[in-house]
Amino acid sequence: MPDRTRVRTRLKVIGLWVPGTGGPSCLPHQPIPAPPAPGLSRPDSTGTVYDRCPMLESVAHNRIAIIGTGFSGIAAAVRLGEAGETDFVLYERSGDVGGTWRDNTYPGCACDVPSHLYSFSFAPNPTWSRAFSPQPEIQRYLRGVAESYGVTPRVRFHHEIEDASWDDADRVWRLNTSRGERTADILVSAVGGLSAPSIPEIEGLGDFEGPAFHSAEWDHEADLEGKRVAVIGTGASAIQFVPELQPKVASIDLFQRTPPWIMPRRDRPVSKIERRLFRAFPVLQKAVRTAIYWGRELFVLPMLKPRIAGRTELIARKHLEHQVPDPELRAKLTPDYSIGCKRILLSNQYYRSLGEENVEVVTTGIREIRRDCVVTEDGVEHTADAIVFGTGFKVADMPVGHQIHGRGGVSLHETWAGSPTAHLGVTVGGFPNFFMLMGPNTGLGHTSVTIMIEAQVDYLVQALGHLRRDETSVMEPTPAAIRGWRSEIDRLSEGTVWTAGGCNSWYLDDNGKNSILWPSFATGYRHRLNRFRPEDFEFGPGRTARVAVDTSVSA
Ligand code: NAP
What we know:
Helix content: 25-40%
Oligomer: single chain
Structural class: alpha/beta
Bound molecules: NADP nicotinamide-adenine-dinucleotide phosphate
Largest sheet: 8 strands, mixed
Low-confidence stretches: 1-49
């Protein structure tokens, strides 16, 4: 829609934009209302938990089904609507949009990528309050985008996809949802990699009598004030919530397996004047975004060429020295692998909080958990009233891998045999008309994943353009395209800090291969997806008429 985009941009620039209405209610076959609100005039949504929409739920078959309503699902819906698709729905297991930003409500939860970049290029938000946004603000932003762009009415809330199987006879996706079976011609997985919390199987965990929960499922009912808290894990989430807990609790025993590399966090409030300027001159905010984009692209260089990482490591070492005067504690917190091998974390408070008297960093491994304590390998009992797991997510072995079945009933998990692979991170052989957003090898360690998501949804739209010529045709990547992509990933990963940095990270799968990260500049990935190459795909006849006949079910 080049004309509309141009008009929209002009209106934005001159500040004459009329916010969208929030879209039609409950009508799955209506186009997305245009134009949407620019600069998110109302990014702060109401906080409503959405009800079921009986009219929407009465439709059994849709051309496109999107699973998930986080950044990826919302972006896909917006772009599909703009491209003229009218028959698509989003399945959401919860009662709200937002994905991982809805679920992660732990104290101190915030983004470590600057807000101007960690947002959609098509929906700049001139009202970000800080350089790095806190979780509630990002969640409000996502709600605001979903509402302003008419995505929300297309969401089937409280519909968990339990299983999705390709029916080769009828050439359609059969979706078993928690509210009955639905079908779709095209399935888009937008579940993301950080949706399934991982809690380690520690002997005796079930015997623990106090509250025990994962950071992504924070138990806000649990009163931790004045309590002895065991925190397991020292990753991206823990370094944010530990400094928040430390002043409130009696003590923290922090169980660290591997210390992370931590850099200073250059956060600051965005001034009122800046916000006014961004609102009045959206082009200014765009320029800031572009500058951050290219600055962040440079961050990947030391990860691609670890031998030039000296300066980055020096900054991190100085940060540690400056914030942790105690040499014994500092030794515990000094990583023994190359910087960047695991995600580089940003914090100005974490190290300081570990130096407080009520915090003990425990580096001995955990043997078991008992009724009221965590027992380490040396037999020491660490008494605890509560346990918080900051132990990350099931990324390489995500549940969706077991739930989605392609030709012959084979699951993604079985197809991948321990090394998830998708052509360009998007399509999988044996899984016709199936598209992944933030699929294998599209994660990033250095910049905003929204860049990858937008490239992927544009690619999706191009791919669907090929299918649209014949309303019911089917496509899947050729074995040669998949092999080519896999070897490109392996070649690019070789010698990078992720494979040669001497750490054990969740970027590497069971076979020791990088199947999570795009091992290069985000710009390179965008270029790869710029043009859809039909020669990378096999096309075939589409859905049989049988499915099309029965398109409605009672609500
Ligand atoms: P994480 O960074 O993967 O950290 C998990 C931590 O748990 C690690 O310290 C890990 O130790 C430890 N752990 C795992 N299993 C353990 C076990 N059995 N015993 C002891 N320790 C164990 O997980 P996360 O903090 O939830 O973050 C996950 C991802 O979410 C991040 O990498 C990032 O992509 C994203 N995130 C982003 C932001 C942001 O600001 N954008 C904020 C939070 C999270 P090892 O290191 O030894 O494995």
